[in-house]
Design brief:
The complex is a heterodimer of chains A (603) and B (238). Chain A is of the alpha/beta class and 603 residues long. Helices cover 43% and strands 12% of the residues of chain A. In chain A, the strands form 3 sheets. In chain A, strands 5-11-10-14-12-13 form a 6-stranded mixed sheet. In chain A, strands 2-1-3-4 form a 4-stranded mixed sheet, covered by helices on one side. In chain A, β3 and β4 form a beta hairpin. In chain A, α6 packs parallel to α7 and α9 packs across α12. The longest helix of chain A is centred in the last third of the chain and has 18 residues. Chain B has 238 residues and is of the alpha+beta class. Chain B has 2 domains: 71 residues, Ubiquitin-like (UB roll) (Roll); 128 residues, 2-Layer Sandwich (Alpha-Beta Plaits), CATH 3.30.70.20. Chain B contains 5 helices and 9 strands. In chain B, the strands form 3 sheets. In chain B, strands 2-1-5-3-4 form a 5-stranded mixed sheet, with helices on one face. In chain B, strands 6-9 form a two-stranded antiparallel ribbon. The longest helix of chain B is centred in the middle third of the chain and has 17 residues. At the A-B interface, α3, α4, α18, α19 and α20 of A face α2 and β7 of B.
Chain lengths: 603, 238
């Protein structure tokens, strides 16, 4: 039965459903677009979608409940999310958040009483080279200062629509500092495809294999082998997926590649489609990069007009391929390829049991190539210049170049492209880092490199990386760096398996206990025990990696932990005085009589 | 039985059929590997990780790992049982499990597995989550405090009953079970006591009302013998 309440939602849902052809596999996209219209996902809207998509409403609620950027309750007309990577912290994001909360009379995490706004934190938004950053209604704003925060408060108070905010707030910079073969190439749209036609699909695959190109998402699997496995896998359709869910804290190269080099990326996908026999491709773009969507749609449209996409590409009968963009909605785990495929299918982003792998059982259970943005761009270069040329760059087992996203304590944060094999020391020198204590390479799940290791090399055989390169000066507390990452993993755990779901929360509680001055050697041993369990029993890489930052910093910066083990013997984490804070708030008291003596503090 | 269709489990030879996972073959042969989210009547899920074994030296969930010819599987060893005990402790502190007052005591797989593995305390600080019960249904009670997110009810309702009464929502430590009703209440779903989903909960979430203590504590399934000696009724040799 249609009530007038439902009609309100049908009005904006019908065009979305029509555009998405009532395809239940597009559920996540439909929910995201519905929220863009209504601000949150109304319970009546779920009823309507359940009816129209023939999906149980519990399934729709389950999907919406999984993604941080989807809301089942009103979150305000203006939804402000402060990026909370360690680099944002180092640039003072928490002071700015408190400042904004104070100006707008709202508590972090809560909706203002007039329903105007909410202010919260979110995982790294990929603007570490120009932070502190935030998202307003999922659109990115960079270079926050107290003045910029005050302007934003004023605009919100005056209810100025986001489209009328000053354009300079949204001026995201590329910050390319060092170009090599990829960032420096003079790529012409269609050039790689022409090379493909001259050479043929088989020979092109051979060139990719000859190039020894390895996946740029960090794992480093052979791209040629992946394409070949997929091509040889039986299935009534094959798919090509570009993983632009760049969620690893400190990584932002894909943001720049998609902004300035989208043709190279899309062309790489098209080459792959020809090799594996795919007709449909997807770009899975992280929700934090929503601001890139219009630009990317325009590039796709232009490529269709240039017959570089669509039917009979460049006049080649039977070569049909097109690319659709799917947006994520705030879930780091979707960067894991099987979780990404679940998400593409409109489901909760839970990593699948592997094997089978996506090359045989991917999107809709069909053979699927999932590659990183930088991998596809590199494939275009290889099609143009040949595999031998590419294999001659870099090192023996890590061919080509790697784009590093440099941020933190240095004079020139931004993108640096180097042939593989570059030392950490060289990157530090060129980005203007001085008196460096440590570098976190490849993000929260990566490796923490201390000063005595700066001659180590960026390469799969030494320090593999998806691209993040966060620099920490001597003044930084490496325990706090690790604690930030541990909180990140707890927030981003999908919750599927016991060790990661509970273990990451236990681990962040223990790190907080140390930070709060209640630590003892006992807690230290507990942390090490939990790390072992996470590594050996977790379902996917997120759980395995969740202990890396702690294990690395314990091994290399043990004094940062030891100074927090204030007690010789075990002390409970439970803080009697803190437990009274709610009562103090309710009674408006903060005098000494409203506090308990913290007996263990006096020991 | 051909020579190559078998593996060893803690030194004992276990035959398997093509496509069986380690735990499926082990249970069919009457062996016990601790588990919670696995139920031989359902497709393996692989989330609780209690059934983690070492297969040819590599740790893996035995419910999802396909058996291979000649595989050397280790299960009942201190190293793994120590890890399983920690996983159990995690499940205990994550929810609100008060065994002495629970209607499911003695019939609960979580409790029985904890006894089996000599779990003496929850060890970690309790999370004490706020999970209201749902007593809306005339015949059944949902006590979410005990949910371990195994999703057996989700799978049973979807795959056997064809109803989708249950689903998981939220993420990470905030993951939780929901029911298929706008009100969020079981009474407003098409749930029925004859559903498979009403009878698969390994812990005490889905409970038939008014029969909680009709069998006295002390005379229940796992009071008589440990879970390792109590084969699943649908498994051969039970």
């Amino acid at each position: 039965m249609m009530t007038s309440q439902t009609n309100v939602h049908a009005e904006y849902l019908n065009p979305i459903l029509a555009r998405r052809q009532h395809n239940p596999n597009d559920l996540l996209q439909i929910l995201r677009e519905a929220q863009e219209q209504h601000g949150y996902i109304h319970t009546d809207a779920i009823d309507y979608l359940s009816l129209e998509l023939k999906l149980p409403r519990a399934k729709i609620e389950g999907v919406a409940g999984f993604y941080s950027f989807l809301y089942l309750q009103p979150r305000g007309e203006y939804r402000v999310l402060f990026s909370d990577n360690i680099t944002d912290r180092m640039l003072g994001n928490m002071e700015l958040l408190e400042n904004m909360c104070a100006q707008l009379w709202v508590e972090p995490g809560k909706v203002s009483e007039d329903g105007l706004l909410s202010i919260e934190t979110t995982s790294c938004t990929g603007l570490c080279d120009q932070g502190p950053a935030l998202l307003v209604n999922n659109i990115a704003i960079n270079r926050l200062t107290p003045a910029r925060v005050s302007s934003i408060c004023e605009l919100i108070r005056e209810r100025v629509p986001l489209s009328a905010w000053p354009q300079e707030f949204f001026a995201i910079e590329d910050n390319i500092r060092r170009k090599d073969i990829l960032l420096g190439s003079d790529f012409k749209s269609g050039a790689a495809l022409s090379a493909l036609f001259q050479r043929g699909a088989d020979a092109t695959l051979q060139e990719i294999k000859t190039s020894k190109l390895r996946g740029r998402g960090g794992a480093g699997f052979s791209t040629g082998m992946k394409w070949e496995f997929c091509r040889n896998a039986a299935g009534d359709a094959h798919y090509v997926v570009c993983n632009a869910d760049e969620g690893e804290p400190g990584t932002f190269k894909d943001r720049v590649l998609l902004n300035g080099y989208a043709d190279m990326v899309f062309e790489g996908m098209t080459l792959c489609a020809r090799v594996v026999g795919a007709k449909q491709g997807f770009l899975y773009l992280r929700g934090e990069y929503r601001y890139l969507l219009d630009h990317l749609q325009a590039v796709l449209q232009r490529r269709r007009q240039q017959t570089l996409l669509g039917t009979s590409i460049l006049g080649e009968a039977g070569f049909d391929f097109d690319i659709e963009i799917h947006l994520g909605a705030g879930a780091y785990v979707c960067g894991e390829e099987s979780a990404l495929i679940e998400s593409l299918e409109g489901k909760r982003g839970t990593p699948r049991n592997r094997p089978p792998f996506p090359v045989t059982n991917g999107y809709l259970d069909r053979p699927t190539v999932v590659n990183n943005v930088e991998t596809f761009a590199s494939a275009s270069l290889i099609a143009l210049n040949g595999g031998a040329w590419y294999a001659g760059i870099g090192t023996e087992t890590s061919s080509g170049t790697k784009i590093l996203s440099v941020s933190g304590d240095c004079e020139r944060p931004g993108l640096y492209e180097y042939p593989f094999g570059v030392t950490v020391a060289q990157v530090l020198a060129e980005c203007g880092a001085r008196d460096t204590q440590a570098v976190q390479v490849s993000g929260a799940s990566g490796v923490c490199v201390s000063a005595d290791e700066f001659e180590r090399r960026i390469a799969f055989e030494d320090i593999p990386t998806a691209g993040a390169f966060m620099v920490f000066g001597q003044q930084r507390d490496m325990f706090e760096v690790a604690r930030n990452f541990v909180h990140f993993f707890a927030h981003e755990s999908c919750g599927f398996c016991t060790p990661c779901r509970v273990g990451t929360s236990l681990l962040s509680n223990m790190m907080d206990k140390l930070a709060n001055g209640h630590g003892s050697p006992y807690d230290f041993a507990e942390i090490e025990k939990l790390n072992g369990l996470l590594q050996s029993t977790s379902h996917c890489g997120l759980g395995h990696a969740a202990c890396n930052p702690v294990l690395d910093t314990i091994a290399k910066f043990r004094p940062a932990y030891e100074k927090r083990l204030a007690h010789k013997d075990f002390v409970p984490a439970f803080d009697l005085d803190a437990a009274l804070s709610q009562a103090r708030q309710m009674t408006g008291r903060d005098d000494t009589g409203a506090h308990l003596e913290r007996s263990h503090e006096s020991r | 039985m051909s020579q190559d269709k078998s593996f060893t489990l803690d030194g004992k030879t276990v035959p398997y059929q093509e496509g069986q996972t380690i735990i499926q073959a082990a249970m069919a042969a009457g062996h016990y590997i601790p588990h919670l989210c696995f139920n031989p009547e359902f497709k393996p899920h692989g989330s609780c990780k209690l059934c983690t074994v070492k297969a040819n030296g590599r740790q893996t969930a035995s419910c999802t790992q396909q058996a291979q010819p000649g595989m050397v599987v280790e299960s009942d060893i201190n190293e793994l049982n120590d890890e399983r005990r920690v996983l159990l402790q995690m499940l205990f502190v994550e929810g609100n499990h008060f065994c002495p007052s629970c209607e499911k005591s003695g019939n609960c797989q979580l409790q029985a597995t904890a006894y089996e593995l000599d779990m003496m305390s929850p060890h970690f600080d309790q999370f004490f989550p706020d999970r209201p019960v749902d007593a809306s249904h005339a015949e059944y009670l949902l006590d979410f405090n005990r949910c371990i997110l195994c999703s057996l009810c989700v799978r049973a309702s979807r795959d056997v009953d064809g109803k989708n009464v249950f689903a998981l929502s939220g993420r990470g430590i905030k993951s939780h079970l929901i029911v298929n009703a706008k009100s969020g209440h079981l009474a407003d779903t098409d749930f029925s006591g004859s559903d498979k989903a009403a009878h698969v909960c390994p812990v005490g979430v889905i409970l038939k009302k008014r029969v909680g203590f009709s069998v006295p504590i002390g005379q229940r399934t796992f009071d008589a013998q440990p879970i390792s000696a109590t084969p699943h009724p649908k498994v051969k040799g039970a």
